[in-house]
């Protein structure tokens, strides 16, 4: 895995560097990058096909192994990197969810200490694993967090795809492992890559479930084996806890279901309840390993939470889009992915009693549907389990099963035709055609996210499509003014602004987050918003200074307002769940006279007014 990860990282770095040396047209306005993407995909698929041939012939095995790592990571790199080659931003630009993710990466680029992405003096609530590694990469390369986001996201997905391939080679035949790994990589790029820190976990879930089932369900004659699988599954759960809490919850739920099923089968086989002890002990060992790894990221937050700081701002689960109110049924969609999922569903039903792989994947699928039902039921008590975000994992599980179904169907068809070589060739050609058709359509699946990457303004104040930038083009001037007024490190300054994407580019701390759904539950989001609203009713600078000095939190050092006829304005957000959309935006206005005092310095640039407290 270490060697595979190294090869994948090198291939991704070289590929992205090469893409960046050419002045490409913007993807939304030209078909050139789509054409080059298709060429790159075909080349990498051809490389992987050659690896399959070499593995089947058992020739040049070591060279084929390294080549398979390079081919798979190259496929991910060209599929994501080429369409984004003319912009410095990643999928979905710097908008909405990608804003706080970039802010988190910027925070951990500025410092290796585990710290909340927005608020001063608080430990992180969102798992820092993926962002911490990315921050160290950016720091090592001397790049800003926002600028490293795209190459790091693409590179990390490429590495995760190769890690999945290495794991698959330990579970199934190597030639088949290459095909399965390529299919799952294509699916995760198409349906999960907008959340790169989730994609790196999602692509590993199918092989890890097969691994975990091998560790939990052992026939009597091999009951003492499988502890390596137990350790591996436990390590994965711990890493998932450090990267993406929701996927940890699903994986842990699925593994627990596996342990219960394994315990039931063992009791039936032995005719005694003592048969349940071994799988449950193995589950406990997985849990201990997972908790030990998870605490490396979660311990600071848990220790702070033990102090009992009152808060009702933990609203991360207050979101129920239309997709979360229905069970996901990708196998009924009219598409290549839908056809693969349908075949996977059929294969699971037919093979669940005879194939350990089918059993593991089926339990994973059942876990997702149970989780979805629980999420919908959870709405009765005021929240959800965010089941709509599990659809990419469901597609991965069913897609993986579909590839296994293709293997079985192909073998049956070959046998039924007396191993006619033309039939074999036809199956291979049809399979390759389907793969290429799906792969070359991935940029179209991601077209909305790619378009936003080109239309958002990056940290250099430019847009990838070379059109007039937005208000973020003034952020450089705002940063210069703040640094002139408050010399020193940026992380020594707390900024209150509703243009919170400023914090995605510069590592200032914020006084208030974008919405309560992204806010640390310890930050008292609602109370902070109420305090900000109350300041608009103050009449003199003395009253404002006295109020700021009496806050229970670190007060703002700088205010970045929007100018308006009513004075200086901020836009705040309020959670209105169970409504959809679940956020209500509203504006508050501060009279200019409130800052007409020597203790405040006011600078204006573009649509912004920057008020710095100097005394």
- Please give the largest β-sheet: 7 strands, mixed
Classify the beta-strand content into a percent band.
5-15%
Helicity range = 55-70%
Structural Rg: 26 Å
Given helix and strand content, the structural type is alpha/beta
Number of strands: 7
Give the uncertain stretches in residue-range form. none
Q: What best-fitting shape do the alpha-carbon axes yield?
A: globular
The overall pLDDT average reads 93
The succession of helices and strands, N to C, reads HHHHHHHHHHHHHHHHHHHEHEHHEEEEE
Distance between the termini: 56 Å
Number of helices: 22
How would you sum up this structure, described in words?
- The structure is a single chain.
- With 615 residues, this protein is of the alpha/beta class.
- Helix content is 59%, strand content 7%.
- The protein has 22 helices and seven strands.
- The chain has helices at residues 2-20, 32-57, 61-81, 97-110, 129-141, 145-169, 174-192, 196-202, 205-216, 227-243, 245-270, 277-305, 336-351, 356-378, 391-416, 421-440, 442-445, 447-455, 475-485, 502-505, 525-535, 541-549; strands at residues 494-497, 509-510, 558-564, 567-575, 583-590, 600-605, 608-613.
- Strands 1, 2, 3, 4, 5, 6 and 7 form a seven-stranded mixed beta sheet that branches.
- A hairpin with a 7-residue loop joins strand 4 and strand 5.
- Helix 3 (61-81) packs parallel to helix 7 and helix 13 crosses helix 14.
- The termini are far apart.
- The mean pLDDT is 93.
